[in-house]
Design brief:
The chain is mainly beta. Helix content is 6%, strand content 43%. It has a 5-stranded mixed beta sheet with strand order 2-8-7-4-5, with no helix packed on it.
């Protein structure tokens, strides 16, 4: 008797073989593709590369532009995961290409990586060291060719706020009551948000949100893309302090005598610490500790999670400014002096008097502390001992916090100029004259200086006449011309 089940068995087996065949053909003929763990970042960024659609069990070279950086081996499915490469320190701002290429043929895949550095909050990082360690366009040689790329005119009242730069956008406050978002390349206004009073505070940008204080007593959180208000927190008096953002918390001072810790997502108060006098400077955050100066003449160290006081150092005088933290030392200014204390104990290490009021914050970079004074000088001190290394005389009071990048110190002065000085010896490299005094601290990022002036303008100063120096998109490599490094050893992948 005919049994249909018997006949169906070879048919089913044949179908299985056909499916297996097409699956294997699919693996062999699939178009390779790669994904990157991040699409942008500064020079030296770690990039994890994953791929699929390659031949099974073959070597794949991974290039950054034309440099072979790693060799991995695909698994039985023609995949590899989390191969590690780094963007070169020398990679200029702009679009670069990551290529994964099978050994011994030109079959591969490419994805772009945008090299860019963010100066996302006052003084670059929450510890306020004021150093951009990634800058590779401006240096003591190239700064001599700096010129105006664009300027943006805000309303009346001047720009004291220091710019923040993130993802190609410049954020800055103005005494015309507004916070502005400007295209970093062109200066075109993307949006503005009007607060109830002047904005002296410098914005901080984190996770797509702009945080800034206002003289209307509020701290604001704004959508970085649209400027829409996400939340605001009302303190008892004006907020001149620039927020510092770390680990999902916004730290800020107020003229109501308090240091506040606010939930960055909701604006809910986590804690506050009352100093008894206005807190005008920006808190610095490092290693789980918040350091804040007060008009009572004290520098405070507070537990970042609870607000509990760890120690305080009485510096004398009035109005301890924004602290800076580096290598276990806290640097701050008060009255006519800069001083350094142990970050763990608050014990005084050294102090130096300039002979005139010191209003701007200090910067610490590579073992040297830089600070300006109302005696019209910029000073450099040994960070450990306080020994004076050099000073440079400008044409007016220096109340901005210096910024340091790639061997150059940038600072504004009340003679209306922005200065570039050689970090090693204070030699004058370049100046730019604005329309009024400069109290805004410069941000140096991606080969451009961004700074505000009391003439109500925001300036972008760069090397636009020399595209090669200023950095531009790299050419997409032809996979047929890439040269594989046969000395590379196989790297582990996930």
């Amino acid at each position: 008797m005919f049994n249909p089940r018997e006949r169906s068995r070879p048919i089913a087996f044949l179908a299985f073989l056909l499916i297996a065949y097409f699956l294997l053909c699919g693996i062999a003929s699939a178009t390779p593709s790669i994904t990157l763990s991040k699409k942008s970042g500064p020079p030296t960024s770690r990039i994890l590369v994953s791929g699929r659609g390659f031949k099974p069990n073959v070597g794949v070279d991974i290039f950054f532009d034309t440099k072979d950086k790693a060799l991995v081996v695909t698994n039985g499915r023609g995949e590899f995961h989390d191969a590690r490469i780094h963007a070169p320190r020398s990679a200029r701002p702009g679009k670069h290409w990551v290529t994964a290429l099978e050994r011994n043929n030109d079959k591969g895949a490419q994805e772009p990586f945008l090299v860019q550095t963010d100066w996302a909050q006052f003084y670059f990082t929450p510890d306020h060291d004021g150093l951009n360690p990634y800058e590779n366009v401006l240096n003591p040689r190239t700064v001599r060719s700096l010129q105006l790329e664009w300027s943006f005119a805000t309303g009346h009242g001047g720009v004291i706020s220091s710019p923040a730069v993130a993802s190609g956008v410049v954020y800055v406050g103005s005494f015309d009551n507004n916070v502005y978002a400007l295209d970093a390349r062109t200066g075109a206004k993307l949006w503005s948000y009007t607060t109830g009073a002047g904005v002296y505070s410098s914005p901080a940008v984190a996770d797509g949100v702009v945080y800034v204080g206002s003289f209307d007593n509020n701290v604001y959180a704004l959508d970085a893309r649209t400027g829409a208000k996400l939340w605001s927190y009302t303190t008892g008096r004006i907020v001149e302090s620039s927020p510092a953002v770390a680990d999902g918390v916004v730290y800020v001072g107020s003229y109501d005598d308090n240091v506040y810790a606010l939930n960055a997502r909701t604006g809910a108060k986590l804690w506050n610490y009352a100093t008894g006098y206005p807190v005008t400077g920006s808190p610095a955050v490092a290693n789980g500790v918040v350091y804040a100066g007060s008009n009572d003449g004290n520098l405070y160290a507070l537990n970042a999670h609870t607000g509990a006081k760890l120690w305080s150092y009485f510096a004398g005088g009035y109005d301890v400014g924004t602290p800076t933290v580096g290598d276990g030392i806290v640097y701050a200014v008060v009255a006519e002096k800069i001083f350094a204390v142990n970050a763990s104990t608050g014990t005084l290490l050294w102090t130096y008097s300039t002979g005139s009021v010191v209003r701007g914050s200090a910067t610490v970079a590579r073992g040297v502390v830089y600070v300006g004074s109302d005696d019209s000088n910029v000073y450099a001190f040994d960070a450990q001992t306080g020994a004076k290394l050099w000073s440079h005389t400008t044409g007016g009071e220096v109340e901005t916090a210096p910024a340091v990048a790639n061997g150059v110190v940038y600072v504004g002065a009340f003679d209306n100029n922005v200065y570039a000085l050689k970090a090693r010896n204070g030699a004058l490299l370049w100046t730019y004259l604005t329309g009024d005094w400069v109290q805004s601290s410069p941000a140096i990022v991606n080969g451009v200086i961004y700074v505000g002036s009391n003439d109500s303008n925001v300036y972008a100063l760069g090397l636009k006449h020399d595209a090669e120096q200023a950095g531009e998109d790299s050419k997409r490599p032809d996979t047929k011309t890439l040269r594989q490094d046969f000395n590379l050893k196989v790297s582990k992948s996930g």
